[in-house]
Design goal:
The complex is a heterodimer.
Chain A: H1 4-35
Chain B: H1 9-32, H2 46-72, H3 79-110, H4 119-139, H5 144-158, H6 161-171, H7 194-253
Helix pairs in contact in B: 1-7, 2-3, 2-5, 2-7, 3-4, 3-7, 4-5, 4-6
The chains are: A mainly alpha, B mainly alpha.
Chain lengths: 41, 254
């Protein structure tokens, strides 16, 4: 495969950024869920 | 809604489906799909570039605009639409950032430069800045109603750049290639290999599933942030009332 470095860098950065964002959203959501009382739901 | 930390079953299924379809897209794009006659292997980057662009511009910002319009319309005004608009815009900015990043890497291989002030690239960069501005406007302190109303107006105004981005390859002389799929002049004669078309289609489906999954989680987070802000306000009011009660009692005793 030509330009494999660029292509793998593109794929790696895309999936890493998406995974990082998803992890941030889920972790923050879980921490806020624990902070709020069940009766706030 | 409840404040349980677990996602609902449909959201969990959506998460698994998007993970599986993204993995399949990567295999199809990097292993099965052939190199392009003109672009060579750099075409493999377009299986990320096209779906992320589609998701950002038409789906994410489309949902933001629709939700904002529904918020602005008095009959349908609800906090739900404001939170949906904000959640979708944040995901759209993420996808558009990825579109620019992948496009830049593709440009380095094909054109020899990371960036050029081409009409498509410039209008896309403007769109990215406009929606970053929208997210900044959402953070400007104000009452929730004022904040939601002005954010909705900015969202609708920012969307005006989307048709300009779409038409930029037709209106101006540009390095960026015109549409391969979706061009009405080529609908009956698409200029794309079967494996490439299927990989692109799978990529679009995978990223759309991912968008739906992210939106469900991001909306839920926005809703929790909203509840927490309300709770902080209630606590602050209770504290002020308690302070006022104490000072009144002190005045009476003195």
């Amino acid at each position: 495969m030509n330009d494999a470095g660029y292509i793998f860098a593109g794929y790696f950065s895309t999936f890493a950024i998406l995974a990082g964002y998803a992890a941030w959203v889920i972790r923050r959501k879980r921490s806020l869920s624990r902070l709020l009382r069940p009766e706030d739901g | 809604m409840t404040t349980t930390t677990r996602s609902s079953r449909p959201v969990q299924i959506l998460g698994w489906l998007s993970a599986i379809s993204l993995a399949l897209t990567a295999v199809m794009a990097l292993v099965i799909s052939p190199p392009d006659v003109n672009m060579g292997d750099s075409v493999r980057l377009l299986y990320l570039h096209v779906p992320t662009a589609w998701l950002a511009m038409y789906v994410s910002f489309g949902v933001t605009t629709l939700a904002s319009a529904l918020y602005l319309w008095k009959r349908t005004r609800s906090r739900f639409w404001d939170l949906t608009a904000g959640a979708s815009a944040e995901i759209g900015v993420l996808f558009l950032g990825l579109t620019l990043l992948i496009g830049s890497i593709w440009g380095r291989i094909t054109w020899g430069v990371w960036w050029t002030w081409d009409a498509r690239l410039t209008t896309t960069a403007v769109l990215f800045v406009l929606y970053l501005g929208y997210l900044a406007v959402r953070k400007v302190p104000a009452s929730p109603e004022v904040q939601a109303r002005r954010s909705a107006i900015v969202a609708v105004a920012a969307f005006l750049d989307v048709p300009i981005v779409h038409q930029s390859v037709e209106w101006w002389r540009t390095l960026h290639q015109p549409a391969t799929i979706g061009d009405e002049r080529r609908l009956l004669d698409p200029q794309i290999h079967g494996a490439m078309a299927w990989t692109l289609l799978l990529g679009v489906v995978a990223f759309t599933l991912l968008y739906c999954w992210l939106l469900a989680h991001r909306f839920r987070l926005a809703w929790l942030e909203d509840r927490l802000a309300d709770r902080h306000l209630e606590v602050a009011i209770e504290e002020r009332r308690a302070e006022a009660g104490l000072s009144e009692a002190a005045e009476v005793t003195s």
